[in-house]
Design a protein that fits this description.
heterodimer; A: mainly alpha; 3-stranded antiparallel beta sheet; 15 helices; B: 68 residues; mainly alpha; 1 helix
Chain lengths: 445, 68
């Protein structure tokens, strides 16, 4: 940084990502609040701590190996080339610590890390009140620092083989985050089984009402807020696309993760219009139920996200509404048909919504260049194959295998007696005893 | 004696890594990685003891009712 203009560019980029990271922290706050609001009183602390402790576990594992995967695996490896040299992203690289030769790596790493937390936290919601914390944290490391970052290298990197060969386009991560996390959650839940009492002996489902719907409301508002940061973090804020590939003359613009031009202004409109489409259809289809109206607002954004870098706002709104409708219907169809206990609707809102959105985008964006660095174009089949890879190959399958292994070791599900009594029963007993002792001391003082 | 590779800022352009003990990063990585593994094992053991205690006390589905 030997002149003011280049320094301004670098420091602006550094500050830009830093702000997105702080904003995205609200997604995790929202998930914690939301999950506690859904869980029953006897499981509150366990639910909160399970989701909280994924923060350090995913953070350190993403530092150890997750970040390296992103830069080393774009070719598969061995699908479209070998392993890429990513020595700068190893856990012993000097770029991964404070140094004067790089200002961007740390904040860029942190932005991706917050995506990792989100992926793991989505799984957390689906498994509440019955998964062991130890098992969940192993699964969190698997999705947060391995599975999702492989899919990011494949389909969320300008050189990724899915982008180069399939024309996969997923600007704000309908499949890259949400599809895979939903598929992963489904794989875990299929092995984990439903909460005791969720289904009757005749197969009919019981509704386990959220303990505190107003905490859920606050939680989802916080997730919406953090999602703004997520959208901004998916962009490169300032890039000379003109000199790089756009005719040779300098032309600076914001780009998406594939370095294709877009604008922060445009994606802001689309974020709001897709939220609106999701909320409006969600309100109608759920008959004004707060839990589902908020959730389907989120599903609307998630469904439109893959193309929200270029969609017209009307397209974003309509797609979000369609996605919200089918997400809601699919959730209850799957629940009743396959007896899947998706406790917070995470598999539906993230997995189904992201996948449906990708399928729609294949038709809407048909023929659009998928990358500035190749000939691939977006197609319905490319997006469909991509959605399948995200949800099933990198989401469902690893989760199912890992859950089976954990289950065979007796480490996946809490004991039946504990589930019935409540995960926090000992803490509740201790608190009651402390209160009684304090009251006695207070009276005798 | 200095733990950093620089002892002043007179030649800022020559300074790269700012952390102390720059030659020990590989060892620190191994220590931190091992800590993660050990932590996971300790957490699982602690969680097992917690569940065993609940089972030993004979709690049932109505145990939490008096606290809610």
């Amino acid at each position: 940084m030997d002149n003011e203009l280049s320094a301004l560019n670098i420091i602006f980029t550094e500050a830009y990502y830093w702000i997105t990271v702080v904003m995205m922290f609200l997604i995790h706050v929202g998930f914690c609040v939301y999950e506690v609001g859904v869980s029953r009183y006897k499981n509150h602390q366990h639910t909160l701590m399970k989701n909280t402790m994924l923060i350090p576990i995913v953070t350190i594992t993403f530092y150890f190996f997750g970040w390296w995967i992103y830069f080393a695996f774009p070719n598969g490896p061995f699908i479209n080339g070998g392993l890429e040299d990513a020595s700068f992203a190893t856990p012993i690289a000097q770029e991964m610590a404070p140094n004067m030769s790089d200002h961007i790596m740390g904040v860029f790493w942190a932005a991706f890390l917050l995506f990792s937390w989100t992926a793991a936290s989505i799984v957390s919601g689906a498994t509440i009140e019955r998964i062991r914390t130890g098992a969940f944290l192993i699964l969190a490391a698997l999705i947060g620092s391995v599975c999702w970052i492989i899919d990011a290298a494949w389909g969320w990197h300008y050189g990724g083989w899915m982008v180069q060969l399939l024309g996969y386009h997923d600007a704000y991560a309908s499949g890259v985050i949400h599809g895979i996390a939903g598929g992963f959650a489904l794989g875990v839940v299929m092995v984990l089984g439903p909460r005791i009492g969720k289904f009757n002996s005749d197969g009919s489902a019981n509704t386990i009402s959220p303990r505190n719907p107003w905490m859920i409301t606050i939680g989802l508002f916080l997730i919406y807020t953090g999602f703004w940061g997520f959208y901004a973090a998916c962009n490169v804020p300032i890039y000379d696309a003109g000199s790089d590939y756009g005719g040779g003359e300098a032309l600076f613009t914001a780009t998406n993760i594939y370095l294709q031009p877009t604008t922060l202004s445009g994606i802001t409109i689309n974020f709001l219009m897709s939220l609106s489409g999701g909320l409006m259809v969600g309100y109608l289809v759920s008959k004004g139920d707060a839990f589902w109206t908020y959730s389907l607002g989120l599903a609307g954004i998630i469904g439109a996200s893959c193309g929200n870098d270029v969609y017209h706002p009307y397209q974003a709104m309509i797609i979000a509404g369609v996605v919200a409708y089918f997400t809601y219907k699919l959730h209850f169809w799957v629940e009743n048909t396959f007896k899947i206990d998706d406790a917070v609707g995470a598999i539906a809102v993230h997995g189904y919504a992201g996948t449906i959105g990708l399928l729609i985008s294949g038709f809407v964006l048909w023929g659009m260049p998928a990358t500035p660095y190749g000939d691939a174009v977006v197609t319905p089949w490319g997006q469909a194959i991509g959605a399948f890879i995200m949800f099933f190959v990198l989401g469902f399958v690893p989760a199912w295998i890992a859950s089976k292994i954990l289950d065979s070791m007796g480490l996946l599900r809490i004991p039946r007696e504990v589930e019935l009594a409540g995960l926090d029963i000992l803490e509740m007993e201790q608190k009651a005893a402390d209160d009684a002792q304090f009251n006695k001391a207070e009276r005798s003082a | 004696m200095a733990t950093t590779t620089y002892t002043n800022y007179e030649s800022l352009a020559d300074i790269s890594i700012l952390s102390p003990f720059p030659g020990s990063i590989t060892i620190l990585f191994i220590v931190c990685f091992a800590f993660w593994i050990v932590w996971q094992v300790m957490q699982i053991n602690a969680e097992n003891r917690h569940y065993d205690e609940i089972k030993k006390k004979g709690h049932n589905a109505s145990s939490a009712d008096k606290f809610s």
